[in-house]
């Protein structure tokens, strides 16, 4: 069930953080910041407000049993350890068993899971599990490639480093050639 976002609480929190870092929350540039941040959080954490039942609705009457791959889907998520963005591309493949979905539905499912405090491994696995659960395909594979700003702009400071995660289900797990086909297709321009 989706939670209700409490923008007043977010505003109070932002005010406290600004005070905490020693800022003057009354100066003109910051006066509206708590309100703006609350509005932004509603957008970047919108996945918490979305109902999973509304996603990945299948298209009736289409019989396709070959691989479908939606690749190079850009996304933004937020690392739950530091609340800094991680940014990258996702590649989603599945082999239908009767049910196919509109392609935008795959990207919407990614958005739903990315727009919340996340960990890249969990995002990858949850997306694969959701596709398996909702579409009951013969298999699916999700590969995500992202840069974490908590690794780039602070801490270990390794800008440009990429984290690649994959989740492999069904026939993609049991059949190496299917997995390889997906990886080859991802590489192609
Ligand atoms: N596995 C995984 N780790 C992540 C992800 N995002 C951030 N991290 C890591 O989470 C860890 C959090 O480490 P902590 O030691 O609790 O916090 P910290 O002292 O701020 O960590 P540093 O980033 O190492 O300075 C760090 O190693 C981050 O690089 C992610 O999506 N997956
Ligand atoms: Zn982080």
TrEMBL record:
Pfam families: GTP_cyclohydroI. Transmembrane segments: none annotated. GO terms for cellular component: cytoplasm. Its EC number is 3.5.4.16. It comes from the Bacteria. Pathway: Cofactor biosynthesis; 7,8-dihydroneopterin triphosphate biosynthesis; 7,8-dihydroneopterin triphosphate from GTP: step 1/1. One of its GO terms (biological process) is one-carbon metabolic process. HAMAP family: FolE (MF_00223). Belongs to the GTP cyclohydrolase I family. This is GTP cyclohydrolase 1. It comes from Dissulfurispira thermophila.
């Amino acid at each position: 069930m989706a939670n209700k976002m409490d923008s007043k609480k977010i505003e109070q929190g932002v005010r406290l953080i600004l005070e905490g870092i020693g800022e003057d929350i009354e100066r003109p540039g910051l006066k509206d910041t708590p309100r703006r941040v609350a509005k932004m959080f509603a957008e970047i954490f919108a996945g918490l407000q979305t109902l999973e039942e509304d996603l990945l609705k299948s298209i009736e009457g289409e019989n396709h049993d070959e691989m479908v791959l939606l690749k190079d889907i850009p996304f933004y998520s937020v690392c739950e350890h530091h609340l800094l963005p991680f940014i990258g591309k996702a590649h989603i493949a599945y082999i239908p068993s009767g049910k196919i979905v509109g392609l935008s539905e795959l990207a919407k499912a990614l958005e739903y899971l990315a727009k919340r405090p996340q960990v890249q491994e969990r995002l990858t696995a949850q997306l694969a599990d959701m596709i398996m659960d909702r579409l009951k395909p013969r298999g699916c594979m999700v590969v995500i490639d992202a840069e974490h700003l908590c690794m780039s702009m602070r801490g270990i400071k390794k800008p440009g480093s990429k984290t690649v995660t994959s989740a492999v289900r069904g026939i993609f797990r049991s059949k190496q050639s299917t997995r390889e086909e997906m990886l080859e297709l991802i590489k192609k321009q």
